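User: Structure please.
Assistant: Input sequence and predicted structure:
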Amino acid sequence: MKDISYALNGLLLKASRKAQTYILMLSLVFLAGLVASAQLVIYSSFEKRALVNELHQMNQQRDAMQEEWGQLLLEQSAWSAYSRVESLVSDELQMRVPSATDVIMARQP
């Protein structure tokens, strides 16, 4: 009976050591996963900050371009105003509106 008891204790001791080894390896795997997860959280928050910064810069560029576009539209409307074109035509090209006697009507055949 003592032999069986010693054999059984030996088997239980071996199983206990294997279980402790597996628990240790599993703990190391979980610890490595935890460290990797923490590193990924740090990296993703860094990337998020960089992308938010880039977004703010692009919004500022968009606002500046919209302001410039508005100024260009104002300038275009000023340069193409009817009164300005009329004064350029009359002053620089000496053009005038023809009188009624100078207008010749042509008929379409």
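Residues 2-79 form the longest helix (78 residues).
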